[in-house]
C-alpha cells in the first residue's frame, strides 16, 4: 500500500465519520513559545481551551488532518532506523464531539480493518499523584478484545510515557492510550481532559490534583506518524525503506555510509519544507536550525567528494561535478515529486536558490574550518564554538568529523557557550550604538532624535490602546508586555478569546477619537500608594520605587466631552473612577517612565494592523501611527 493510499484511506475514514478535513498548518506556529509545529494538535490549541469555536470555523466539532511537523529534540539520533526531524502526522481531533469510546473503537477499526494490521498490545495511563489513572480506556480495550474475539494485552504505563502536553508554556494535557504494531508505537490517542498552567517538565512533577483544571468539554487529539505507519503497512525494516524516504536515499552520494545517507534524506526534507514556510538560514531560532541542517548536508557532500573519490580519475571528476552541482537539486526535485501533490506550496526553484546560496557562503570557509579542526589536539566547547564562529562549522559536523577528539564536547556545553556569546555580542552592540549616539529617554531607546519622536508617539498610543481595550472589553484586560520599534507598537494583554472585527474597530475608533480630542498628557510625581489610590494602572508592582511617575491623558480642561460623553463604552470606566480620589476624569492613567507626547494630537492616525494569540489567554495587538 503506497503512502498515497494510506493518506486517502485515513482522510476518507474520518470524513465518513463526520470529521471536517483541515489542511496542514505551517511549520511555524502562531504560538511564540514553541519554535516549530511539533504535532497535529498545535493548530487546534485554541479550540481545546474554548478560545475559538470549532463549529463556527469548521462547521463540525471534529476535524481530521495530515500535519507537517518538525522536532529537533531527536536530531542527534537521526541516522538510526527510526528518528526524523521532519515528519507528517495523521490525526483526528474532537472538541466536544466524541470521547474515549469512539476514538479508541475507530482507531482499532482503522488499524485492523482498513489497514489489515494486527495490534500487538496497547498501553493506558497508570495514574500519578496529580492525575488519576485512566480506567475507562482500559475497560474499553477489554470490551473491544471481547467483541472481536481477540486477545489484546493492556500495559499500564506512567506519566512520562502515557500523557501528552502541555506544548509551550501551558496548555491542554491529559492521559493517552497508545497502540503498538510489530513492536512499534503507531498511534497516540490523547484525552485532553485538563488544562495545566506550566510546561511539560513542571506537569510531570505535579503532585497536586487541583492544579489540573478540568477542560469542558474535554477534547480528543490523536497522532500517527505517517513514516512509521508506512513502515509497518509496507512491511519494510525501517522508515528509510518506505516509499516516502527510499527514493531520496537512493540519490545520496554512493560513497557515503547508510547513516549519512539517512541524515541527508531526513535533513533535505526538513530544509525543503522550512524554506517553503518562510524560514531562511540565520544565527537565531528557526533560521539557526535550518542553517545547521543545511551545513551538515553540505559537509557530507563535501567530504564525499574529498576523501574517497572513485579510483578512475574520469569518474572522480564527473562524480565531483554531479555531487557538487546537481545531486542536491535532484533530491529536491524528488521531494517535490513525492510531496508536491499534497503541498502545492513547495517551490523547487526557491528551495534550490536558498540552498545554493547557503552552500556558496559556507564553502568559502568549510575547508579551512576542517583543516583547523584537523590541527586541534582535542575539541572542547570553547574551541568548538570558535570553529562555528570563524568557519561556520555547526556542532553536528564538528562532533562527527572530530570523532574521538570531541569526547569532551557535548551539545549542552556547546549550547551554553553559544548563549554566553550571544549575550556578549548583544551587550557589545548596545555599547557600539551608544557610541554612535544611541539615545535613551525614560523607557525608550532610539538611534536618533527623529526615531525617538516616532517611538514617543507610539508609546502614548500604547497607553490609549490599553485604556480603550479596558473600556471596551472590561477590566480583565491586563497588560502583559509591550514593545515599540520605530515602525509599530506591540501590546500583549490578558483576554480569553479572539477579538471580533467589530471590537477591534471600536478600539481603533476610540483611540482615534482621543487623538482628535487633543487631550493633554500630564506627568506627575507621587507616592506609589497615592498613585494607585488615584486610579493609576500598574502591572509590575514589585518593581516600583516609593515615588513614581504617573502619566495622565485627559481630561481636556476646557472641554470635558470625552469624559462627559454618554458613549456606552466609556461609561464603565467612569463608574470605576467614581470611587477614586482623583478629582478629574481622565482617559488613561498609568505608572510609567515616559517619555510621552504632551498632547494626543501629536500621535496622528492610529491603525491596528494585527490581532493574534500569544498563548492561552493572552492576545497581542500590533498597531501603527501615521
Ligand atoms: N499530540 C499527540 C502526539 O503528537 C497526539 O497527536 O503524539
Structure report:
It is a single chain. 43% of the residues lie in helices and 20% in strands. Strands 1, 2, 3, 4, 5, 6, 7, 8 and 9 form a nine-stranded mixed sheet that branches. It has a four-stranded antiparallel sheet with strand order 12-13-18-17, with helices on one face. Helix 9 packs antiparallel against helix 10 (285-307), helix 9 packs across helix 12 (327-339) and helix 9 packs across helix 13. The longest helix has 28 residues, at 348-375. The chain folds into three domains: 3-241, 2-Layer Sandwich (BirA Bifunctional Protein, domain 2), CATH 3.30.930; 254-375, no CATH class; 455-625, Threonyl-trna Synthetase, Chain A, domain 2 (Threonyl-tRNA Synthetase, Chain A, domain 2, 2-Layer Sandwich), CATH 3.30.980.10. It is globular and about 80 Å long. It has 626 residues and is α+β, with helices and mostly antiparallel strands. The protein has 21 helices and 18 strands. A hairpin with a 2-residue loop joins strand 17 and strand 18. It has helices at 3-16, 45-49, 54-58, 100-114, 135-148, 200-205, 226-234, 246-249, 258-276, 285-307, 313-325, 327-339, 348-375, 381-391, 395-402, 411-435, 449-473, 501-516, 528-533, 561-564, 571-577, and strands spanning 20-21, 62-70, 86-94, 121-125, 153-157, 163-164, 171-181, 184-196, 213-225, 439-441, 444-446, 479-484, 489-494, 521-527, 547-553, 588-591, 606-615, 618-625. The protein starts with a helix and ends with a strand. The protein binds serine. Serine (SER) is lined by residues 39-41, 91, 164, 188, 190, 221-223. Serine binds at residues 39-41, 91, 164, 188, 190, 221-223.
Amino acid at each position: 500500500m503506497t503512502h498515497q493510499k494510506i493518506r486517502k484511506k485515513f482522510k476518507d475514514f474520518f470524513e465518513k465519520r463526520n470529521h471536517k478535513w483541515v489542511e496542514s498548518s505551517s511549520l511555524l506556529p502562531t504560538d511564540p513559545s514553541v519554535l516549530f509545529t511539533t504535532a497535529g494538535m498545535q493548530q487546534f490549541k485554541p479550540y481545546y481551551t474554548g478560545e475559538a469555536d470549532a463549529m463556527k470555523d469548521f462547521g463540525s466539532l471534529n476535524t481530521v488532518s495530515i500535519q507537517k511537523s518538525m522536532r529537533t529534540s531527536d536530531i542527534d539520533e537521526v541516522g538510526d532506523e527510526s528518528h526524523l526531524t521532519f515528519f507528517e502526522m495523521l490525526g483526528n481531533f474532537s472538541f466536544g464531539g466524541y470521547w474515549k469510546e469512539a476514538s479508541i473503537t475507530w482507531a482499532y477499526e482503522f488499524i485492523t480493518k482498513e489497514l489489515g494490521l494486527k495490534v500487538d498490545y496497547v498501553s493506558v495511563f497508570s495514574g500519578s499523584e496529580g492525575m488519576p489513572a485512566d480506567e475507562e480506556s482500559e475497560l474499553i480495550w477489554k470490551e473491544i478484545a471481547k467483541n472481536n474475539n481477540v486477545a489484546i494485552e493492556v500495559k499500564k504505563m506512567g506519566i512520562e510515557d502515557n500523557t501528552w502536553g502541555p506544548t509551550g508554556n501551558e496548555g491542554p494535557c491529559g492521559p493517552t492510550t497508545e497502540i503498538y504494531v510489530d513492536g512499534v508505537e503507531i498511534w497516540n490517542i490523547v484525552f485532553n481532559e485538563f488544562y495545566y498552567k506550566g510546561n511539560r517538565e513542571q506537569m510531570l512533577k505535579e503532585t497536586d490534583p487541583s492544579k489540573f483544571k478540568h477542560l469542558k468539554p474535554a477534547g480528543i487529539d490523536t497522532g500517527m506518524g505517517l513514516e512509521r505507519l508506512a513502515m509497518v503497512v509496507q512491511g519494510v525494516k525501517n522508515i528509510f525503506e518506505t516509499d516516502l524516504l527510499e527514493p531520496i536515499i537512493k540519490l545520496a552520494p554512493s560513497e557515503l555510509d547508510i547513516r549519512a545517507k539517512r541524515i541527508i534524506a531526513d535533513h533535505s526534507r526538513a530544509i525543503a519544507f522550512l524554506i517553503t514556510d518562510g524560514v531562511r538560514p540565520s544565527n537565531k531560532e528557526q533560521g539557526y536550525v535550518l542553517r545547521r541542517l543545511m551545513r551538515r548536508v553540505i559537509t557530507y557532500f563535501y567530504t564525499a567528494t574529498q576523501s574517497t573519490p572513485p579510483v578512475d580519475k574520469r569518474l572522480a571528476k564527473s562524480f565531483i561535478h554531479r555531487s557538487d552541482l546537481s545531486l542536491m537539486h535532484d533530491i529536491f526535485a524528488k521531494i517535490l515529486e513525492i510531496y508536491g501533490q499534497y503541498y502545492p506550496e513547495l517551490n523547487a526553484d526557491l528551495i534550490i536558490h536558498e540552498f545554493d546560496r547557503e552552500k556558496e557562503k559556507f564553502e568559502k570557509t568549510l575547508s579551512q574550518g576542517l583543516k583547523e579542526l584537523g590541527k586541534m589536539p582535542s575539541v572542547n566547547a570553547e574551541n568548538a564554538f570558535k570553529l562555528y564562529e570563524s568557519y561556520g562549522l555547526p556542532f553536528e559536523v564538528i562532533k562527527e568529523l572530530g570523532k574521538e577528539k570531541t569526547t569532551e564536547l557535548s551539545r549542552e556545553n556547546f549550547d551554553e557557550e553559544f548563549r554566553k556569546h550571544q549575550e556578549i555580542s548583544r551587550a557589545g552592540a548596545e555599547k557600539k550604538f551608544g557610541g554612535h549616539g544611541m539615545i535613551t529617554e525614560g523607557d525608550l531607546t532610539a538611534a536618533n532624535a527623529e526615531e525617538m519622536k516616532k517611538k514617543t508617539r507610539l508609546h502614548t498610543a500604547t497607553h490609549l490602546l490599553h485604556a480603550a481595550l479596558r473600556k471596551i472589553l472590561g477590566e480583565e484586560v491586563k497588560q502583559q508586555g509591550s514593545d515599540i520599534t520605530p515602525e509599530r507598537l506591540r501590546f500583549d494583554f490578558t483576554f480569553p478569546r479572539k477579538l471580533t472585527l467589530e471590537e477591534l474597530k471600536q478600539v481603533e475608533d476610540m483611540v482615534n477619537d482621543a487623538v482628535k480630542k487633543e487631550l493633554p498628557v500630564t506627568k506627575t510625581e507621587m507616592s506609589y500608594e497615592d498613585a494607585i489610590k488615584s486610579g493609576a494602572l500598574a502591572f509590575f508592582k514589585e518593581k516600583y520605587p516609593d515615588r513614581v511617575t504617573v502619566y495622565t491623558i485627559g481630561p481636556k480642561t476646557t472641554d470635558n466631552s470625552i469624559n462627559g460623553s454618554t458613549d456606552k463604552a466609556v461609561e464603565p470606566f467612569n463608574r470605576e473612577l467614581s470611587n477614586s480620589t482623583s478629582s478629574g476624569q481622565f482617559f488613561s492613567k498609568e505608572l510609567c517612565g515616559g517619555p510621552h507626547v504632551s498632547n494626543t494630537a501629536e500621535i496622528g492616525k492610529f491603525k491596528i494592523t494585527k490581532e493574534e494569540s500569544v498563548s492561552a489567554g493572552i492576545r497581542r495587538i500590533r498597531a501603527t501611527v501615521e
